[in-house]
Amino acid sequence: MKTREPLAQLMLAALMLLGVLATGASAKNRALLIGVGTYANLSADLFLKGPKNDVQLIKHLLQAKMGYQPDDIKILSDKGATKQAIEDTFRSWLIEGTSEGDKVYFYFSGHGIQVRDRDGDESDQTDEALAPYDLKIGKDDFLNAITDDEIAKLLNDLKGRAVTVVVDACHSGTITRSLTRSQPPVGARYLVHQNQKIKNPPAATRALSFEPKTLDKPQGIISLSAAAPHQLAFDDLRKKDDGRTGVFTGAYVAGILGGEADKNKNGSVSFSELLAHLRKESDIYCKQDPSCQGLTPVMEVPEDALKYSVAPTSPTFTTAKPKKPASELELNPKVTQFTAYTLEDLKGNHTKPDNGYEVATEVLTDPSYNTLSLEIKPGTVLAEGQAFTVHVTSGVAGDLLLYDLDTKGKALQLFPNELSGKSTRISSGQPFFMPDDDYGFDFEAGKPGGYILAIVINDRLALDAFAPKSLGLTDYQDTAKLLGVIGKQLSDYVVDSQGDDVTARPVHWAYGLIKYEVH
Predict the structure, then answer these.
(1) Which pLDDT value is given to residue 351?
(2) For residues 274 and 310, is the Cβ–Cβ distance under 8 A?
(3) Is the pLDDT of residue 271 over 70?
(4) What is the bridge-based pairing of β-strands 220-225 and 298-300?
C-alpha cells in the first residue's frame, strides 16, 4: 500500500475551505469532463452507455453545488476525446488557463485498462491507464492509452491549484479470476487484452495513483475513484439505456446534489459522509449484479479535512484577510462568502474548537457493524467529582479504542494505555470495563461533561501508528485532528486473497458514542 503522508499535508489549508489558496484576488474555477462510451477501434459490444450521461450529471452538479459557471466547464466526449485532444485540452484549459490559487476539476468516465510498464517504476510491471476514443489493440498491449505516469506529469504542472480528480472507470491493480476471460462482464468499465502477459502484482498494490512520485512538490489533490484495486467499475444496468450512468457517478451526484449522503442531517455532506454513501450504494448494486465481486470506491483526501463539506454553500471565494481573529472564525460556514487560508494561517490553535459530537458524526459515518453497546455507570448525568466507569460490549471481536471528547475540541485517549495490562483485542459479546480494579484509581466526573467514544476495529491495523499506548491517559489531543487520523484509517480498504482470488473490501469496524453531563 503506497504511503500517503505527503498527501495528508498538502491539502490542509485548501481543503478546509474546499481548496482555495490565498494567492490571488479571487479564485478561478476550471473543469474538464471526459466521457468515452464509444471507441474507434473496439467492437460495439465493448461500448458503454453511461459516460455520455455521466458528464452531463457532473456538469449539473458543478454548477448547482460547486460554484462553477457554464463557461468554466469544458466537455470532451467520444470522437472528441482522443488521446491527443485530452492531453492538449488538459494543458491549454486546466494548466495554461489557471494559476496558483485556482480550483481545477478533472473527471473521466469510460474504460480503464492496464498497459505494460515502460519505465520500470511499477513493481507489478504494469501502468494503470485510461482509455481514450482512439485506443488501439496492439499485438500484445494496448496503444494510445493515457497512463498514470502521463497523468502525473500533467498534474505536476498544476502546482498551487486545488485539484479534484474523479474517475469512474476500473483501473484495477490486479486481475481476478473473473477478468481472465476474454471479455469482462456486460457493463464493466474495464478492458482486457487477450495477449497481455502481465504478472499479478502484490495484493497491496494500489491502482491508478493521483499522488504520484513524479510530482516535484506536494500538490492540492483530492481523488475519488469508482473501485479499489482488484475490482470492476460498472455501468448501472438497472437503468434504461438512454438514462444509464455509472454506478459510481450516479451515487456521487445524488449523494451531494440530493443530500443523500448527509447522514447526520446537518445540511452539509462531509468527505467522510460522501465516501460512506458511495460505498453503501455500490454495495447495493453489487448484490444485485451476479458479475460483481465487490465494489469499494476509494477516496484520497487529507485526514484533517474528512469532516469538511464537499460542497460549501458559498459559491464565492475570496482571499481577503478576516476581520475577526482566526480563533473566532467558523472554518466551514454557511454564509455567502468566506476567507481562504494558507497553511501558515492554520498552525497552532488558530482554528475554532469543534464539538466532539459534531466532529464524530461527520467523520465516523458508516460502520460495518451496528453492534456496539456503550454505557456509563452509574449513569449519563453525574455530579462533579463522582466516580464512573465505562462499559463496552461489542458484537464483533476487534481492537478497542476508547476516548473522552470534551466540549472544547479536545480528546483524551482512555484506552489503550500503559497502565493497563489488557490487550487491545476484545472478544465478541464480552463486556469491557474501564477502569477496573487493576488500575487502582477511578474516573471522576468533571464539568461540564462531554462524550465517550468507543471504536472496535475488526481488521488488524497498525494501532501504534495512530493510537499508541503512550498516548493513553496523558495529554488531551485535538479532537478534529485525532478523528481525522482515525477516520482515514477506517475509510481505507483491505485486500483479501485466497489462492488466485484477490478481492478488496472496506475496513470492518463498529463504534458507539454517548453523551454525559456533569453538574
Answers:
(1) 36
(2) yes
(3) yes
(4) antiparallel
Burial class (CB in 10 A: 0-12, 13-18, 19+), 469: middle
Q: Which helix (H) or strand (E) holds 300?
A: strand 298-300
Does 417 score more than 90 pLDDT?
yes
Alpha carbons 441 and 436: distance in angstroms, whole number: 8
Least trusted range by pLDDT, from 64-68, 111-115, 385-389? 111-115
Q: Quickly list DSSP for 358-399.
A: HHHHHHS---SB--EEEEEES-SEE-TT-EEEEEEEESS-EE
CA dist., res. 188 & res. 185, Å (int): 6
Model pLDDT, residue 502: 66
Nearest-5° Cα angle at 23, 19 to 26: 75
For residue 320, count other CB atoms closer than 10 A to its CB.
Answer: 12
Please, are residues 75 and 62 in contact by the beta-carbon 8 Å criterion?
no
User: Which percentage of the chain shows pLDDT scores above 90?
Assistant: 40
**Residues 353-380 as b or e (16 or more Cβ within 10 Å = b):** bbbbbebbbbbbbbbbbeebebbbeeee
Other beta carbons less than 10 A from residue 427's beta carbon: 12
Helix/strand/coil percent split, the chain, to 5: 25, 25, 50
- Compute how many other C-beta atoms are within 10 angstroms of the C-beta atom of residue 92: 12
Is-contact 491 306, C-beta < 8 A? yes
pLDDT digits (tens, 9 = 90+) for 231-266: 778 888 888 878 889 999 999 999 999 889 998 888
CB 182 within 8 A of CB 268: no
- pTM for the whole thing? 0.73
Please say if the pLDDT value at position 472 is more than 50: yes
Nearest-CA neighbor of 117 among 100, 129, 107?
Answer: 129
Q: How far apart are CA 505 and CA 496, in angstroms?
A: 8
For the stretch 116-135, pLDDT in tens is 776 554 444 567 888 999 99
Q: Which residues fall within 8 angstroms of residue 251, CB to CB, at 6 or more apart? A: 277, 278, 281, 282
> What is the spatial order of strands in the sheet that 146-147 belongs to?
112-116, 126-130, 146-147
Tens digits of per-residue pLDDT, 200-210?
333 222 233 33
H-helix or E-strand spanning residue 516: strand 509-518
